[in-house]
Design a protein that fits this description.
By secondary structure, the chain is of the alpha+beta class. It contains 16 helices and 27 strands.
Length: 717
């Protein structure tokens, strides 16, 4: 033994030995070491009582400075002081292991329990569990702990390690790495439905689709050989699925030589895709099986594992039982990962569905959403949305629902859709927040079966409605952080109206939601966000908003808005350091050109209709509308003004907006009555005007204002 590798109290060698002492029976005098098949002395252990540890010390250049490899299983593994550690590895594993060693050197964080192979002098390989630990200060370098374990201990360690992640690919790769203790190459092929989270119930061999999920060891493979991410050819999927089904019962199958394999596959292309290399091989195919749901006949096969090794090392019955035990435990984890994948996809689909789509010719929007963690349990209730409203307006909404997971996502989806429906129906921002406040209170009523223990009380929301004709924004806020407004001259400030508690705050004096209006000249930038973007435990929330203000002030009018949004998020919440969900919405206001709009204020008199037609007709000719479109627009305008004069009070405001091939006509008055389209009798005089409007327009509706209502209609020009 090299003297520099001698163990002392507290050395990595002793620490690893002590950690395993509780799990491995100590070998007595009668303990023997199996020499493998055929008496070749390759050190493959089948005796469940034996486990052996070795240790190699490395310097900063990854050269061996000391070692303890005297134990019997390490016979033939030649370590020499001064040699690179890579000399102990198969050539294909050198890049991957070297990368892990250097990472531990840089981060000083241990890399524990990785299945690895060591190269023996006779060309055979020894499977070990390798841990990389930084040397104890003041020493530099690394300590590599190597454990050559008995198969049963390896089985225990593998079953414990697999399933620690809910990622399907990571679970499959952990299984493939663990299976290397039984073979030279291990592959895991999963049904395509596992990746999408679908229910795996189809057992027809001709229809099964497999995708390679994992492959070990990590090395360069021949052209045509299937690697992770590749879809197996249909014939290969059918053959593998059929190989593990006997009398409709999934079971392990062993093909003992290459000739039998090639006869079964029949196609050179399939041989190249499935068989690793040109050497003689045998293979054991083990199905990943779970119990089917109630009502499903028989078990469900999620996929197939293949363990390849030399024909002179045949699979024993005990080994097949061990393999089936490990694969069966892994199958349950794969099924859990599949269910998690489906849940995660549903939550993220809801989140992404609520993100704003492309803007219009009056406003440009860009958004960024980043969840705290990549799993559904970490997905929170942050949301932003933007959508067009009648009368050429645009709604901008941001909200933050309390909590994370499915409960928060469900509440978020309900509030977001309700806000959109109410705004589209013509309610103002303050009125919409009043309805959302009631909804949040209802969601907290678990007796109603709507929340099932989840409370959305304390959720926040901010709604802004942009009018591109008047160049103004009407904003109402329920406990949310204030938006930031950047004007065309580069000045920036927060838009803070009268503060109001969050939604569902029952223990405060309820006040109406104030609507704050402010001017937004063309070129202005409005910034909506959630607290995850600006919160920092080491600073106040005002400091975070200040940093956000400084960053958005640097967004130039010619910058790509989506790239600017990502740049702002990267500056405030770097990826990998998120404390909460991050949501950002940038809205660049372009406005409507003056020559495309017109507004008139008319007295509510009987001659108002004629006056309105006299003002509108020349403008429509100037806008080069067709004769039919002009006649329709004048008729619709006459009906709307007539209703405003007859049923409303006060002055009448007429507004026309031209946008592409669309004409928007809006007539506002101070009345509170809502026009309703109803089926009339043949001799009724009332109600005919709305039928005319309904027939001639693509859509129409009512919008409530501070002083009354506005009836709008849209026509094709």
């Amino acid at each position: 033994m090299d003297p520099s590798a001698s163990s002392s109290a507290g050395s990595p060698f002793d620490m690893v030995s002590g950690a395993l002492a509780d799990y491995v029976p100590r070998a007595g005098p009668s303990a023997t070491r199996s020499s493998g098949t055929g008496g070749k002395g390759d050190g493959r252990e089948d005796d469940g009582r034996e486990q052996i540890l070795g240790v190699v010390s490395l310097d900063a250049e990854l050269r061996i400075t000391g070692y303890n490899l005297d134990a019997a299983p390490f016979a033939g593994v030649s370590a020499r002081t001064g040699d690179p550690f890579a000399e102990l590895l198969p050539s294909g594993d050198v890049p991957t292991v070297t990368q892990r060693l250097r990472r531990v050197l840089e981060t000083r964080e241990a890399h524990v329990a990785r299945v690895q192979r060591l190269r023996r002098d006779d060309g055979t390989e020894l499977v070990v569990s390798m841990s990389i630990l930084p040397a104890a200060p003041p020493q530099e370098g690394l300590t590599v702990s190597l454990i050559a374990m008995a198969k049963r201990l390896h089985l225990y360690a593998s079953a414990t390690a697999i399933g620690t992640s809910l990622d399907i690919g990571e679970t499959a790769q952990s299984l493939a790495q663990s299976l290397l203790a039984w073979g030279d190459v291990a592959a895991v092929d999963l049904d395509y439905a596992v990746w999408t989270g679908e229910a795996v119930t189809e057992q027809t061999h001709e229809r099964i689709r497999l995708r390679r999920a994992a492959l070990a060891p990590d090395r360069a493979w021949p052209d045509g050989y299937l690697t992770p991410g590749d879809n197996l050819p249909r014939e290969a999927s059918r053959l593998l699925a059929g190989a593990v089904m006997r009398d409709d019962v999934p079971q392990a199958v062993v093909i003992s030589d290459r000739t039998a394999l090639e006869q079964d596959l029949e196609d050179v292309r399939l041989v190249r895709a499935l068989v690793p290399g040109d050497r003689p091989v045998s293979v054991a195919c083990i199905p990943l099986v779970v119990e089917g749901p109630e009502g499903t006949p028989g078990p469900i096969v999620l996929g197939v594992t293949e363990i390849w090794r030399r024909p002179d090392w045949p699979f024993g019955d005990g080994e097949l039982l061990d393999l089936q035990e490990l694969v069966a435990k892994t199958a349950r984890h794969v099924d859990l990962a599949r269910q998690h994948q489906r849940e995660h996809a549903q939550v993220l689909a809801l989140q992404r569905r609520l993100l704003p789509r492309a803007g219009s010719d009056t406003i440009e929007v860009a958004s960024v959403y980043e969840p705290t963690t990549p799993d559904s349990a970490g997905v929170g209730g942050d949301w932003v949305n933007s959508f067009p409203l009648p009368g050429d307006r645009t709604a901008l909404v941001v909200g933050d629902v309390v909590g994370h997971g499915l409960g928060a996502a469900a509440a978020m989806g309900q509030l977001s859709m309700e806000a959109r429906a109410l705004l589209s129906a013509g309610l103002g921002p303050g009125e919409v927040l009043e309805r959302l406040d009631e909804t949040v209170t209802l969601l907290d009523d678990t007796d109603a079966g709507l929340a099932a223990g989840y409370s959305a009380l304390g959720s926040t929301c901010c709604i802004a409605v942009y009018d591109p004709v008047d160049h103004r924004v009407a904003l109402s806020n329920a406990g949310h952080l204030p938006p930031v407004l950047v004007r065309p001259d580069g000045s920036a400030k927060t838009v803070a109206g009268q503060p109001h508690p969050a939604l569902g705050a029952e223990f405060v004096v309820r006040e109406p939601f104030e609507v704050h209006e402010f001017a937004v000249p063309p070129g202005s930038l409005l910034v909506l966000y959630t607290d995850g973007l600006v919160e920092d435990p080491a600073a106040s929330i005002d400091d975070g908003i200040g940093r956000l203000t400084d960053l958005v002030r640097e967004v130039h009018p010619w910058d790509d808005l989506q790239q600017a949004a990502r740049r702002v998020v990267a500056g405030l919440a770097p990826r990998g350091h998120l404390r909460d969900d991050v949501t950002l919405l940038l809205a660049r206001m372009a406005g409507r050109r003056g020559r495309d709009t017109a507004t008139w204020h008319l007295p509510a008199r009987e001659d108002g209709v004629a006056h309105a037609r006299a003002l509108v007709a020349p403008l429509l000719r100037q806008w080069r509308t067709t004769d039919q479109a002009r006649d329709n627009a004048l008729l619709v305008l006459s009906e709307l003004v007539t209703n405003a004069v007859r049923f409303g009070t006060g002055p009448v405001t007429v507004r026309l907006v031209r946008s592409g091939g669309r004409l928007s006509c809006e007539v506002a008055d101070t009345g509170n009555g809502r026009p309703r389209l109803r089926r009339g009798e043949p001799l009724d005089d009332d109600g005919r005007g709305l039928h005319v409007v309904h027939k001639l327009t693509t859509r129409w509706g009512v919008r409530w204002t501070d002083t009354g209502k506005a009836v709008w209609a849209e026509l094709d020009t």
